[in-house]
Structures are given as structure tokens and as C-alpha cells.
């Protein structure tokens, strides 16, 4: 089902990319109806994550929001590709794609037994951000072949690292030309992120749950219900009023807000706004 423009706007806003969507990405979303299937996220010439969802558009953007903030260089080009399929095919197609490409942010396989089967069939891809000159190149044939070759030679792909016990030393896996290192923030930098990503207190409270620039969490009705912070990996947490330990943690700002709203409404027996 095609997402409404207002829902897409708010979904995009919650990821805090601070970059506008590319018209090619909007066109891809507008001209095709995506439901269940596989999505592939590319950055700087390589596929960095493969996922599955019953709602490809929403989940791919949320997933992009998570992995985008793990890469230090915020000016790199990104692309997304879609491979629709039925739900009963998703484990097989996702597992095979992860094993074939060994994306750096995939640390597990849905099914090792199904990971030597069929590959997902991509029906469309597009550049993600407006300030990109073109797509990121991850889905160009020559880059796909290079990534497949590198994955085949990698004795410790990211999806298998946690399950591997090496008895002897071997050569480290070949690294790509552009290093995409996960970001680690100091306490001061994490506090700065709260200010940078938080909603301005001078603006109207547009969402059910608003994570504000001063660290407060305020409902759309104007009630202050707690505080929020970001950890060293830029992942947000919610602290109810008076709490010293976080009650809710998530890797996505948008999902944190959704879970806080659900918690508040359950606690108070009323709907926000």
C-alpha cells in the first residue's frame, strides 16, 4: 500500500537525517506499490544492510535512520532498493542476500539452512538524499560483483562473527576503499546530539511525544512526563519523571516516541492529543 504524504513526512522527520529526500526516491515510492519483501540499503558503493518487512517503505526508512547515524560521514551518498516477495519467501531471500553480499551491518542470518538458495529480485532502486549527485553505486553490476567476490573471500563475515571460534590466525578480511566506521560519542557529544536533534521549545508541539532540545519529554498536550538522553552510540532512552534508570530504550527516535506514547496512554488510560 502506498504511504500517504503526511505519514511519509512525519516518518522521515523522525529519523533526523537533516537532509531532504531525493526526487528519484519519491518517484520510486509513488510509482510502485510495495508491501512485503526485501529491502537493501547501499552506501558509498556497497550494500551495507539487507532486511525484510511486511511494510517495505516504512521499515526501510526506519532502518536507514538507524544505520545512517552509525556512519560518521553524513555527506556520503545512499541508495535503497526494493525486492517485493510473499512473506513465506522472506527468510530464504534475505538469508541468501546477506550471505552473498556480507553487508557490514547485518550481524545475523534469519536462516543459515536457507542461505544458499534464491536471491531477491530487485524491481527498483533510487538515490535517497536530494544533495546526492547520483545514486550511491551499490547496485551497479561492477560493484555488486566486487562485493560478492569480497564476501566469498571473507572468512569472518559480519553475520557469522559472533558464532565463529578461530583457533589459528588468518588474514583479516579485505576492507573496502571507503571505511564506514560506527560512531562512538563522548558524554558531552551525546548531550550535544540531544540539543541538535531535539524539538525547539519555541515551536508548536506537533507530535504525541516530543523529544525536546533541553532534554525534556513533553506530550502534545503540553505535559512534561520525563527526560531523554542519547548513549555513546547515539541511541535514545526515555526516563519517566523522577526515574534514575531508563524505562524505554530504542535505536530509532521515532520508535522510542511511539513506545513512550503507548506506555503513557496505558498508564493514564487516555489518548494523547
Describe the structure.
This is GIY-YIG domain-containing protein. The protein has about 270 residues and is of the alpha+beta class. It folds into 2 domains: about 5-165, no CATH class; about 185-270, no CATH class. It is built from 7 helices and 9 strands, in the order H-H-E-E-H-E-H-E-H-H-E-E-E-E-E-H. The chain has helices spanning about 5-15, 25-30, 55-70, 90-100, 140-155, 185-195, 255-270, and strands spanning about 35-45, 45-55, 80-85, 125, 210, 215-220, 225-230, 235-240, 250. The strands form 2 sheets. It has a 5-stranded antiparallel sheet with strand order 5-6-7-8-9. The chain has a 4-stranded antiparallel sheet with strand order 2-1-3-4, sandwiched between helices.
Task: Sum up the structure in keywords.
single chain, 273 residues, alpha+beta, 2 domains, 9 strands, 31% helix
Low-confidence stretches: none
Q: Number of DSSP strands?
A: 9
Report the β-strand fraction as a percent range: 15-25%
Mean pLDDT: 85
Number of helices: 7
Helix content: 25-40%
Largest sheet: 5 strands, antiparallel
Distance between the first and last residues' Cα? 27 Å
Structural category:
alpha+beta
Shape: globular
Strand line-up in the sheet with most strands: 5-6-7-8-9
The helix-strand sequence is: HHEEHEHEHHEEEEEH
Q: How many domains comprise the coordinates?
A: 2
What is the gyration radius calculated from CA atoms?
20 Å
Protein name: GIY-YIG domain-containing protein
Region (Disordered): 149-176
